[in-house]
Amino acid sequence: MNASESQVKxxxxxxxxxxxxxxxxxxxxPPSPSPAGLGWREPTSRAHGVKWLAPVAAAVSVGxxxxxxxxxxxxxxxxHRPSEPAAGDGPEVPPYYFAVSPGSGGRPAQVAVRAxxxxxxxxxxxxxxxxxxxxxxxxxxDRTFVVAARQxxxxxxxISLFKFDPAKRRVQLSNTPAPAVPAHxxxxxxxxxxxxxxxxxxxxxxxxxxxxxxxxNLRSGGVQTWTSPAGQVYPFSEPLSMRxxxxxxxxxxxxxxxxxxxxxxxxxxxxxxxGQDCRxxxxxxxxxxxxxxxxxxxxxxxxxxxxxxxxxxxxxPGRRLGGFAQWSARTGRLLRLLDWHPAPLGAGSQAxxxxxxxxGSVLVVYAPPHHAGRTAILSHGQLTLLPGPAMAIPPIxxx
Amino acid sequence: MTQTLRDxxxxxxxxxLYQESAVSFIRLxxxxxxxxxxxxxxxxxxxxxxxxxxxxxxxxDKALGYVRVSVLNGCRRAARRTRAAESVPGYDPGPAAxxxxxxxxxxxxxxxxxxxxxxxxxxxxVLVLTYYLELSDQQIAQETGIRPTTVRSTRHRALAxxxxxxxxxx
Lengths: 399, 170
What we know:
- The complex is a heterodimer.
- By secondary structure, chain A is mostly beta strands.
- Chain A is built from five helices and 27 strands.
- In chain A, the strands form seven sheets. In chain A, strands 6, 7, 8, 9 and 10 form a five-stranded antiparallel β-sheet that branches.
- Chain A is globular.
- The N and C termini of chain B lie far apart (48 Å).
- Helices cover 74% and strands 0% of the residues of chain B.
- The longest helix of chain B is centred in the first third of the chain and has 24 residues.
- By secondary structure, chain B is mainly α.
- At the A-B interface, helix 1, strand 1, helix 2 and strand 22 of A face helix 1, helix 2, helix 3, helix 6 and helix 7 of B.
């Protein structure tokens, strides 16, 4: 390349830099009915939006122009607006949920059973006086659930198994013995299997590096333990970091070390090394998630069929695009975007997936785009806000 | 990307492709047209064309190639409709993209930019594809529908014309 060519090349690069990375306008919506919520820009009075109507107006009848105007109005209308208040609890979503309400006015935090449809309290969970609930997990029957609670920070955590009777609107402590986390361990998270018979419990020794995962058979009392590779610390960043698949065997664990991501453990296979037995399927910071979508905001949630994961995420930080997305649990590749559009999602957002059906087509989400602090059902691109009291942040609730 | 294309619906996938690659295409069109708004329009049209033809696209893995051809065609149409602005907008200096660029004064950059704008559309297009996208002559021939030998001769004429313009202005 001679000097002239180098000069041309350099100037072309310089000119191209005028278009900065975050300066592309949103894509205009095509002039045909299409489902909402996937990142298409609504037409505006600027050239892109108007030009769809211009040839129509010039070439065809007033009636068609009117239709075009109606169409344009529909585009700028409430295609993305959720129904409010909730018209119903949506398909497949369990009728009840179990949530920790933050304490207020000097009252301690409480666990309540609430109706998904109305948000109304259906029953209270009887905890021992002075004990503070820190986590909750529920089985697929929408009746059997566990609550982790402790008296003071730094003390051990007790886990209690409850049964909810919707007919009597009562919650009863089960006689089934449940494990506890001793004071020299830090409770990291737990998950009750869909059949309510197995409990996965993660904890970390306070003064020793490493972590352990125990799977308790609540019926037989048996327990299997997996421990982390030597030197691995702080694998879990918060509770609610594990999910079972419907087979009651496959467990997805969100880990932060040594490589942040999701690993899948087959709990029916003998083993005791979490490092060897838990297969990483979705590396968060280095894999396709980071490359194609940006960083996930929430931990991915395994769908009940065990094939996919869903999470809130952002694309291209700075462009304020975000929502929810679905990935393959086997390969980690992105499958589809759910309720994905310009939104003030970003670092620090509490957007989260609280529940998913078997396939990920119906979700219960927290703090969806434009609805901070609200819980909603996301089904086939339609967002339905749910009524109910404010939740703890991050939300501690189980469907 | 390939897997995403295979799995996503038309709207989701095209929106996704746009989010991922629009800036690159706008830059390309901007370099050819010298007009940012026109460049954005061309890229919008290309992606909407992709959306409309999605079901007809036999090899969806090559969607971005389709978009690039659409953008180049759109640039030619736009250039025919309105001659791209002759004047160079007030570019921000921006970070130096290379050692060559660092060595060029701002005035020289603007002179070269103006000279590029003054070239016929086909010549400017070949220069952009050669020196910005760094495509081979064979690839440029495929993208533009001309023979590789014509690509070479067009580039040769473009560089010569550029030299003349710069000499006249100096």
